[in-house]
Amino acid sequence: MNKNLLYRSIPKVDVLLENEGIQNAIEEHGRENVMEIIREEMDALRAFIGICDDEEAALGKIESLSEQILKQVEKANTPNMRMVINGTGTILHTNLGRAPISQEHMAKLANIVTGYSNLEYNLEEGRRGERYSHFEKLLCKLTGAEAAMAVNNNAAAVMLILSSMAKGGEVIVSRGELVEIGGKFRIPDVMEQSGATLVEVGTTNKTHYSDYEEAITEETKALLKVHTSNYRIVGFTDTVTVGDLHPLAKEHDLPLIEDLGSGVLIDLSKYGLTYEPTVQDSLRNGADVVCFSGDKLLGGPQAGIIVGKKKYIDMMKKNQLTRALRIDKFTATALELVLQEYLSEEKAVQNIPTLRMINEKKEEVEQRAKTLRRMLRSAKLAADFGLEDCESQIGGGSLPLERIPSVAVTIKPHNISVPKLEEAMRHLEVPIIPRTANDTIYLDVRTIESRWFKEIVRMMGELI
Length: 464
Ligand SMILES: *Cc1c(COP(=O)(O)O)cnc(C)c1O
Prior knowledge:
Elements: H1 3-8, H2 13-18, H3 20-29, H4 31-51, H5 55-63, H6 65-76, E1 85-86, E2 90-92, H7 103-113, E3 121-122, E4 127-128, H8 133-143, E5 147-151, H9 154-166, E6 170-174, E7 180-182, E8 185-186, H10 187-192, E9 197-201, H11 209-215, E10 220-226, H12 242-251, E11 256-261, H13 279-284, E12 289-293, E13 304-308, H14 310-318, H15 320-325, H16 329-341, H17 345-351, H18 353-359, H19 362-378, E14 383-395, E15 403-413, H20 418-426, E16 432-433, E17 435-437, E18 440-444, H21 453-463
Parallel strand pairs: 1-16, 2-14, 6-9, 6-10, 10-11, 11-12
Antiparallel strand pairs: 3-4, 5-13, 7-8, 12-13, 14-15, 15-18, 17-18
Helix pairs in contact: 3-4, 3-6, 4-6, 7-16, 8-16, 16-17, 17-18
Bound molecules: pyridoxal-5'-phosphate (PLP).
C-alpha cells in the first residue's frame, strides 16, 4: 500500500473550503473556528494513515473528511449541557439537576434577565436597592420570620450563618446530626470553614437535653440543630427537638439555629408523605435562624434560603462572605416566582414541578403510562412494551425512606441488548435516562412530562 499516494489524496484546504457545507459552517460559526477544526481533522487523518495498514479504511476516511469536519463543527457549537428526560422516577435527582423549573416560570425569567432589571434598584425611591428585597417580604409572610435572605446554596447558608454568629466561638451540635451531604461534602467540614468550633455532644443514636446543657461554656455562641434529611436512624434513638432546646437557649441567651436541609413550606403529610418539619414549625418552635435549600422540596432554583430574627439576618447581610456567596439575578428572579406560588397552596402544588410530581396520583401516572405505551406500540418498533407498578423516590437527600407508588413503561428490545439500548438512549439528541433491571428498561412515567411522549417515541424509533 502506497502511503504517499494516500497522503497526496487528502483534499487540500482550498478544495475543502469550496465545499458548500463548510462554506455555510464558516458563515455561521466564523472562519477561525472552522479553520481550526479543519486543521485538527487533517492532522488526525494524517496520523491515522501513518499507523493504518488498511487501505480501504484510509480511503474511507479521506472520502468522508469534509463530513467529519462538519460533524466536529456541529459538536463544538452544541452545548454539552442539555435537557435530559428523567425516566428514573427519582424526583429530585441530584445528578440530573435536582428541582426542574416550570416552563411558565422560565418564560417570565427570560423576559426579565434578557434585559436590564431592578435587581438592586429601588424603583419607588429611585436609588440603590437590595437584591433580597424581591422575595424577602414574601418569605417573611410565608414563614412568619422577621427577615430573610438567600445565598448560593444551603451549604453556603450554613457557613454564612456560623461565620456571622459564631466565628471564633463554639457551636454545640449533636453527633447524630453530623451528616455528609453528598459528593464527599460533610456538614462538619463546611461548618469548620466558617471559623466556628464544633462541639459535638451525645452519641450517634441518642442525644439528650442534658448533653447540650453540660456542653455550654463561656465560649458557646450558638446551639445548632441539623435536620438529618438524607438518612434515618431507626430503633433505639433519642433526639432533642428545637422546641425542647428553646428554653435552654433562652436561659443562656444563645441563638438557636436549625439547618432544615430540604425545608418545606407546606405540610407534605396532607399529600400522603411522611411529615417533614416545615420552616414555619421550626420558627414557631423557637429557632432564631433557619436555613434550607431552594432546589430540594421547595422546588425552586439552587439557593440557600435563610430566615429568622432581623438582628441576625442583618449581621449576615453585612458579612463580607455574603459578597462571595450571593445569588445572581437568575436565582433572585426564579426564587420570587416560585415563592409567589406558595401564596396559595393549591397553586404551589399545581405549578411547581417538584410538588406536582410528588402529588400526582398513581392512577393519573398509570393513565399517562398507558398513553405512552400505546404511542410506542403504534410505532411498531422491535420491542415489547408493557406496564409495571414501580416506586418513585423523592431523592436529593430528602425523605430517604419515602416510596411513592408509580407506574413504569417497560421496554424489552428484540434485536439489541438492554445495556446497549440503555447506552444508546443516553446518546440521543435529548438523552433518556431510564432505570434498568431484570433485563428490562423501565421508564417511570411520574418524572416524565407528557409533552415529551411524542419525542420519546420518535427518538426510540431511531434505536429499535
Ligand atoms: C442538602 C443539605 C445541605 C446542603 O444543601 P445544598 O443546597 O445542596 O448546598 C445542607 N444541610 C442539610 C441538612 C442538607 O440536607
